[in-house]
Amino acid sequence: MAPPPIVTGLSPNEGAPGTRIKIRGENFGSQPGDLIGLTICGMDCLLTAEWKSPNKIIAISGPIKGKGDVIVTTKYGGTGTCNVTFRGYHLATIGPMKESAVWVEETPMYSWGRHSLSPSSFQQEDPLGLSVEETENKISEEELQNYFPGKCGDIGSQNFSPAWFLLENHQATSFNDIKAGLVYLTRKVHSQKEGQLSFLKANLNSIMDQIDTLMNLRERYEKDLSVFGSTPTIKLERAIKESEREARKLFDDVLSRKDRAEKTRNALNVLQRYKFLFCLPCVIEKNIKKGEYDIVINDYMRVKNLFDKTEVPIFREALNEVEKRIVELQNKLHTDLQTMPITVDQQKRLIRYLVNLDCPFDAAWDAIKSRWEYINKKFKEIYNFHKNTDKLESSKKQNSASKYSKLQIEVISVPACINFTDEICAVTSELFPDLWKIGQAYFSGELQVKIEAGRQVEYKHMVLTAIDSYSKYIRASIIPNTLDKSDRTQYGSLSSLERDEISLYLPELLRSVRSTYSTLIQLDLPNEALDIVSALLVDLRIHCMSILFQQTTEQIKHLSENWKISFSGKYTGVTELPLKFLRLIEDVIQIVKESALSAEQRETTLLDNVSAQKELEKQIDNILSAFYMVLNNLSSTEDFEDCDDNSPVVSQLIGTPVGSQKPDVIHDIPTWEHRLLITLSNCIFTKNTILNDIATKFRETGFSSVDTPIGVNRNKLEMLEKSILDRYLEQKSDPLVGTIEPSMYLGRFDWDINVPPTDIRPYAKECINNLINVHSEINNISTNLLDTILVKIVETIAEELYRLMSCVQKFSKEGAQQAKVDIEALQEMFKDYMSDNAHGHFKEALTHIPVLDGAQMTLVQDILKQCRARMRTQIICLRKH
Amino acid sequence: MAKKLAVQPSLHKVIMVGSGGVGKSALTLQFMYDEFVEDYEPTKADSYRKKILLDGEDVQIDILDTAGQEDYAAIRDNYFRSGEGFLCIFSITEDESFQATQEFREQILRVKNDENIPFLLVGNKCDLEDKRKVSLQEANDRAKQWGVPYVETSAKTREHVDKVFYDLMREIRARKMDENKTNNGRGKDKSKKKKHCCLFMCC
Ligand SMILES: Nc1nc2c(ncn2[C@@H]2O[C@H](COP(=O)(O)OP(=O)(O)OP(=O)(O)O)[C@@H](O)[C@H]2O)c(=O)[nH]1
Ligand SMILES: [Mg+2]
């Protein structure tokens, strides 16, 4: 609401009817149309008002008398107020012979005739001959009207009231003055009467002339009477009639022609007047062609207002013609409205036209429906298009698979289902907002159409099905497993992709869906609709994650061992394999984090989702198991060549020197034992370090439920570790231990000898050397393994010795000394790798040797001392540094 | 009726006098509506009235813009009677208009019969310095002689436009306060008497 108008200035502030007045003030509206009322002294002057500016109006005063306000009324400010007054006056009485700028009621002007005839009319201004008073304290006309209803102060009027006259003009005049005035008036009236007499006197001559003339006239008339009889008028009448008849004869023709001309003119006039109507069909057609629908509508409304109820047949006919054009236009607009593509604004405009044209269709609803159908149609179109390209491609693939290498197949353009998903996202982002916008406009009343019952439900259904089919199309082409069977057939199937292929596109695809999703979110869709896409996104993300992990699993399965042990860097004694494994996992975690895991607008953290968590757990388990399998495979494949080498029957052949490898074996691949050791080392490293690293990595990323798979696989690795160890020991210690007995009794040796000992026996030396060999082999790979393996071997050696000693039937004194020397020496040599078990076995072995006396012991000690000196190198070899 | 009963801010009636074309209407329109009218349209009699703030007090100013043209000279007497203060305008570019101020002054004094009537001598069109015909000295001398202030204005640049109106209103206000003190209530009695007389006559 604008402030009310206020008039603060009038130029001029008084005037006769027809005065051009500049009205100034404030708040006269902002355009000419805002001015909807103007009264000057109560007289409506809107007709002549000319709006100039928000504070200036020019108007022409009407026939006003007296003072009054100038009131402006505007559309938005209402009726205003006025600070100043306008005084209207009549310059002079307006007679029938006088021109006047305005219409003046003539009835009160009856007295003009008499006045003009009387030789000396009253000086109406001042009949009492007293000067007229100052106007200052005048009693207003209204007041006088109150005192003397129906009277007036006009001395010439029938309703003349002397009291009114006196109050109006001589309010302050003293009584004596008024009396004097009366005398004056009386004298004036007298003089007027006297004047008539003197008038006669003065003009006696001419009056006499007039009397003579009258006499003459009378004489002539009487003479005529005798000549023409007593009824000359009848004759006269007859003559007049005769002449009239003659005249008619002369003029009838002319008159009839004139009549015809008049009729033609009338017809022309009618045509001219209703030109608008008759030309309208043409004009409408022209404007339709030009697309000026607003003008057409305007014209149509006007013609309807003017002629809708007309009974005149020609008008009806013209109107029907117009009507026909309008119906055509309606149909055209209605078709346009539903012809896609079209913008929402265009549709809105067309709807407005149709509504204004009173069309029988529910234009707005049709617009919505057509949009919805368009989306559905577009979906199908895109689908069919890609179905075709898909067919082409897959046939191509089948043909080419045999001819080209796998690499070349990958070069083939983006697969159909990806293109399809991409396009359907784009189409949804583009088309759906319009459906929503026009729907909003419809229900918010912006389209100014009646909303029929049930439309809300129907519209909601449309919105939901549109989004639902969007979601289902994507599911069908990317993650068909999340659809029901029936949906799967309905939404078709583009050939699904290989894992490696799809993993290439998945992150990009996820981005497309997300961008559509954010478009939809911006539309303020109901949650019900958004949740459909949200669920789709969750499934896609899980799928994406799963695919990425699967891919990694696959990569891990193909990891190969290069058998190169790294001695430098953070981790020694291991090959690159476990680190590669770790790196692969780190990589996949990074990718998953970037694509699937990151939660965008209105998305939940994926890992809160139970099924996602389960899937993840499964995938982690798969990955870890895959690596386990890799290690397992590495530890179980023996190659035959090596096998031959590694089945020694004879001593010294344990542990194959590097140089003795067969020439056809690839240089880089070490011997079977080495490979076992390397794998073992890797296995332990993986178990102790890598698994922890992986667990931390996962946890850092937010995967919390990794403990179970890690634990399971840790156990698996432990088992593997044991089995490798067993296998290695089997490989190493069995032959080693197995040689002790034959070596001990080589040359039919008997403990019941009588040769005193001088040194430890060769079997012991051999045993020591063998162990040193194993030691060096392991040391080459990983010192960490020494403890585990050597201890085990020493244990078996000790056990074997114990077994051998317990089997000895008889010791001679010398034999006992020898055995003591051997076993003590061995025990001393192996002491760094001695387990309690081994220790026990040695001890028990010693108990089977007969007790020696002091002198005998001295010899033993001597030999041991010599031995220590001789075998210093060996001792150093087996010492922990 | 209600309108009359409501407390109305005091009303000061100002009359613009001066020869034709000196800029009375221009000054008035500039004061009232901040606009300058280039075209010369001789005035007959224009009324303006608006609320303004005079030294923190709400007052109404009523401006009667009179005709300078001789054709309308006869109706002046009547107008002058209702004025409470006068802005007597001449154009500094036209000596004749300056000479005419003498006549206006006399006429006002005759009608108002009051030597101390609030009155300002105003030399308008001071933006046209290069066309000046009436020197500042001359004008000042005359003002001093009359015992009134002299201000030079420009309706075109708005220079001193507000000043002349506000100064005049202050004088009017001061005059009224004096009057109220000396002859409080006399006017009212007079009007009451007249009412009685009317009533008597109609009975
Ligand atoms: N340059 C200039 N021109 C002015 C000034 N004041 C008025 N005019 C011009 O002088 C001409 C006459 O101005 P009006 O205000 O109409 O004169 P007036 O005194 O009202 O004349 P009457 O109504 O005939 O008495 C107009 O063309 C104005 O544009 C002024 O201060 N400077
Ligand atoms: Mg003027």
Automatic annotation (TrEMBL), chain A:
Ranges in coiled-coil conformation: 204-253, 312-339
Any single Gene Ontology cellular-component annotation: exocyst
Domain Exocyst complex component EXOC2/Sec5 N-terminal: 125-878
Annotated ranges, domain IPT/TIG: 5-86
InterPro entries: EXOC2/Sec5, EXOC2/Sec5_N_dom, EXOC6PINT-1/Sec15/Tip20_C_dom2, Ig-like_fold, Ig_E-set, IPT_dom
Keywords from the UniProt entry: Coiled coil, Exocytosis, Protein transport, Transport
GO biological process, one term: Golgi to plasma membrane transport
Keyword Coiled coil applies: yes
Record's keyword annotation contains Transit peptide: no
Membrane-spanning intervals of the chain: none
Function: Component of the exocyst complex involved in the docking of exocytic vesicles with fusion sites on the plasma membrane.
Family designation: Belongs to the SEC5 family.
Subunit structure, as described in the record: Component of the exocyst complex.
UniProt protein name: Exocyst complex component 2
UniProtKB/TrEMBL annotation, chain B:
Localization in the cell: Cell membrane
Bilayer topology annotation: Lipid-anchor
GO cellular component terms, semicolon-separated: plasma membrane
GO MF term list: G protein activity; GTP binding
Cited InterPro entries: P-loop_NTPase (IPR027417), Small_GTP-bd (IPR005225), Small_GTPase (IPR001806), Small_GTPase_Ras-type (IPR020849)
Keywords on record: Cell membrane, GTP-binding, Hydrolase, Lipoprotein, Membrane, Methylation, Nucleotide-binding, Prenylation
Entry-linked SUPFAM superfamilies: P-loop containing nucleoside triphosphate hydrolases
Protein EC: 3.6.5.2
GO biological process: signal transduction
Classification via CDD domains: RalA_RalB (cd04139)
Cytoplasm keyword on record: no
Superkingdom as given in the UniProt entry: Eukaryota
Subcellular location, principal: membrane
Homology family: Belongs to the small GTPase superfamily. Ras family.
NCBIfam families in UniProt: small_GTP
PANTHER family assigned to the protein according to its UniProt record, in alphabetical order: RAS, DI-RAS, AND RHEB FAMILY MEMBERS OF SMALL GTPASE SUPERFAMILY
Annotated protein name in UniProt: small monomeric GTPase
Organism of this sequence: Psylliodes chrysocephalus
